[in-house]
Design brief:
With about 110 residues, the protein is an all-alpha fold. It contains seven helices and no strands.
Length: about 110
């Protein structure tokens, strides 16, 4: 997967900006020689700036649909960033209670 100078992949940007259709396409489009499930789990676990996964980005911004979608494709709620924060902690800190509920549901 290509990344920008900060290590952000297209999935990170789609999650941060709350584009569920783009997130879905990026998770379902298989890389050459790999099946969709392998690719989606790898992409969900990839880290960008600050050690954030796509779920960190979505949780921080309060994107409910994107958070749910990422979780359904294998994102995990207990991944910590460079500061030791999980997506749940970011959502809680930013006051995104709908995202907090979803993360607790999946946790």
């Amino acid at each position: 997967d290509d990344t920008d100078k900060n290590g952000e992949a297209p999935l990170h940007w789609a999650a941060y900006n709350g584009y569920p259709d783009a997130v879905r396409v990026l998770l379902e489009y298989p890389a050459i020689g790999k099946g969709p499930s392998e690719v989606s789990v790898h992409r969900c676990q990839s880290r960008g700036r600050y050690g954030w996964t796509a779920l960190h980005n979505a949780a921080y911004q309060g994107h409910v649909e994107v958070s749910r979608l990422l979780l359904s494709y294998g994102a995990t709620i207990d991944d910590t960033d460079d500061n030791g924060d999980t997506p749940l902690q970011l959502a809680e800190r930013e006051g995104h209670l709908d995202v907090v509920r979803i993360l607790v549901e999946y946790g």
